[in-house]
Each structure stands twice: as structure tokens, then as C-alpha cells.
């Protein structure tokens, strides 16, 4: 969400010190007085590259310094990105600054430090980088460096287009799957779920597992509400971008709330359990009282510590009304700063990050690729022992749903109006769907107005 600028002399000093330490004391030629353009550095010669990413004329090898900003921690950046960039571009020195409470985007900007690249989600683009005037249209750079946009599903790109200007490119996705605990299914003699089930079929399967046995309440299927809300398969919007008014008291959200949150919580035992202690991750991964749980592939990255012993996955259930559609993308993107004087150098790094070479590497490491390339998808989770024994193909089942229209106020609706109030009251049997949505819209509009007034 939009954050107020909290800049002090101390924070600027801390940032400057961190940057100096990360750059290893290297001196960089002064660029004072130069004016950056969307075409990059004036010294970079135009390339003549084909749409498949193969250069037909020579482009200088990237060298010098780049400053990169994002939420990813330093260790994670080095593991997932840094080590491969060092190997690919040995003459390039990248200073990575991860956002913390002491190093926020507003402070970096106010300090006068130049950001060349940044990690972002679609939401952060609208909440942070566009308001800060750091987002730039990549179209010219994409054409110049021969990046083929047809390698991505259009749903990824549509999320980060504003007025037909493409601001980011996806490098990985947080895909949703439906986890299940085989031991619970075996205990109750119920058949395992399968890829391609509808939500109605999943509901019937869930009912066979939902029961109270020996004082222990079992729940057949649940999910993380706020995570699913962001990627709902009917691509429902939260806020009208033209009016900044919440748009949740409508048939689109009624459809989702009835099909999922209402239908899967009609059992009195489930309602009582949710009243005593809200349904959460721990019920599936720690207490082992849930048969199925819809969540992202992040658990698969640490399966030994995060999942029940006898786990597997299938695709997220679909709706008959939206046949073949999986969830919307929940991707991690990379962008080039509008203020950078090294845009061409930054774009060469971006080109590598979206290449089949790099995408195959991270696919093996358990990062879900946004590429449609089958060979990259086939490499999914190869570095993990479970790759051959689990239904990894479920990750790419179906077609990503179109991205909703994102605004900088969406999280107010998701976190406050929906996740804290409406869904909780429905699951506990306190409110019907119509009343919950009406109250949620009223609360969301109040929150939006309060935030707009404080900006």
C-alpha cells in the first residue's frame, strides 16, 4: 500500500553507507547532467536483433555498475539471481538493496541514489513504482533487445500494462495447486483428488472427509482466503480504477463467496472450529486435520519441513462457468527504472532473466516459470528428490485466468474488508453472503477515502 515518506538524515546516511559497502568501493564515472531516455544509454549502439532473441549485430558485453532494489532478501537474491548473473556477466557489478524498515523505497529516492532495476509484483507496481515515477515503458527496449513476448502467456503481461505501456516482465510465478494429505484420505477410505476437478466435485469430496472423530474436527478442504482472492478464477476486480470506489457488492464476488467460502463452511463442526480458532495453514501442515488445502507452490520448495509426510498435489479446482481456467498469475516481475542512465545494460540483464537458459535453471530449483516453453516446464523441480514421485505437472494444468484490473487500493479490500471481516463472519455462520458483501463494500470505501485523504 502507499506508504508515507519517513525520511530522516539518519536513514539517508544508512542507505549511503550500505550502497558504498555493496559497491566494493569502485569508482563510477560521473553521469551528472546526462538525461536518461527510454532508449537507454547514449553510448550503446542500436542492435539489430531478431524476435527470437538471437542477435544479428554485436552488442557490447554488459559492464560497470547497476543498482537493484526489491523486497527479496540478500541471501535469497544471491541464491536465485546473483550467482548466475556473476557467471553470465563477469564484468558487471550489481549492488542489490533489499527493502527493510530502515531502507524503504521513499528513503532511497530521497537520498538521491539512482535505481537501475527493481523487483516488483503487479500490485507493487501500482502501489509504489508508478506513484514514485520509477516505472518506465519497456516497449522500445524490448524491441531493441529482441525479446519475444510471445514466449509468455498474455495474462502475465496484461497485469502490468498501463495505457498499453508494458512496465515489467515476469521472471517467476507463485502458482496455486491443491495439496492433499494421503494419510487422511486413506484413514477414511476416500479416493484421492485428481487434476481437472471442478469446485463442485471438490466440495463433494470434501464432505466425505469433514467429520468429528474422537473429539478431533477434520475439515475436508480449505484455502488461504487472502491469497486466493488475489487470483480468483473469474478475475473479479476490487476497485474501479476510474472512480477509486470498491466494486465488491456484485454478482462476480457473490459467485466466488457462495461457491467457496459459503459452500465449504456449512458443516456445524467446521463453523465451530473456525469460531474457536480460525482455519489456517497449520491445520494442514502441522496439526494434520485438513484433507486438502489450496495454496502456492512455495510449500513445495521446502517440502520436508513444510508439508505432511505423505503429501501430493493436483490442480486447483475449476469452475464449470470458467472451464479450463486456472488461477490468475501471482508473478514476480523485474523492471528497469525510468531514471536510470544505464537502461540498455539493465535490459541485457532482463533479457537473460527471461531467457530459456536462466528459466531452466530456476525451474529445476522449484521456481515456476512464466514461459510457455515446454522444455523449461519439463525441468520443474528436477533438483528435488520428489520430482519423479509427485504430480508436479499439476503446476501447469489449465490456462491462467486473465489478470484483473489492479489498483493501489486493492489490498485494503483484500486484507481489511474481506479477510478480516466478510469471510470470517460467513464461515462462522454469522452473516449471509449478500449482507457480508454489502458491509465489505461500505468498509472498503471508507478505508479508501481515509487513505486518499492521507496521501
Provide key terms for this protein.
globular; 2 domains; five-stranded mixed beta sheet; D-Maltodextrin-Binding Protein, domain 2; signal; Bact_solute-bd_prot1; disordered N terminus; 18 helices; alpha+beta; SBP; 15% strand; 455 residues
Structure, described:
With 455 residues, this protein is an alpha+beta fold. The protein folds into two domains: 36-173 and 330-388, D-Maltodextrin-Binding Protein, domain 2 (3-Layer(aba) Sandwich), CATH 3.40.190; 176-325 and 409-454, 3-Layer(aba) Sandwich (D-Maltodextrin-Binding Protein, domain 2), CATH 3.40.190. The chain is built from 18 helices and 14 strands. The strands form four sheets. The chain has a five-stranded mixed sheet with strand order 2-1-3-14-6, with helices on both faces. Helix 1 (9-22) crosses helix 3 (105-111) and helix 17 runs antiparallel to helix 18 (433-454). The N and C termini lie close together (11 Å).
